[in-house]
Amino acid sequence: MDISPSAVPADAETRASEHADYGRVVIDARGLNLTFDTADGRVDALSNVDLTVREGEFVSFIGPSGCGKTTLLRVIADLEQATGGSITVGGVSPADARASRLYGYVFQAPALLPWRNVLANVTLPLEIFGVPAAERLERAHRNLALVNLDGFEKKFPWQLSGGMQQRASIARALAFDPDLLLMDEPFGALDEIVRDKLNEQLLKLWAETAKTVIFVTHSIPEAVFLSTRIVVMSPRPGRIVDVVDCDLPRDRTLEIRETPRFLEIAHRVREGLRAGHSYDD
Amino acid sequence: MTTDAAAPSLFGRLAGGSVLPLATVLFVVLVVWYGAAIALNAPFARAMATDPAGLDFAGLVETTLSQERPVLPAPHQIVAELKKTVVDLPVTSKRSLVLHGWVTLSSTLTGFAIGALLGLLLAIAIVHVKSLEKSLMFWIVSSQTVPILAVAPIVIVVLGAMGLTGLVPKAIISAYLCFFPVTIGMVKGLTSPDRLHLDLMRTWDASPSQTFWRLRVPSSVPFLFTSLEVAIASSLVGAIVGELPTGAQAGLGARLLAGSYYGQTIQIWAALFAAAILAASMVGLVGLVERLVLKAMGGRR
Question: Smallest Cβ distance to B200: which of A99, A111, A127?
Answer without folding.
Answer: A111
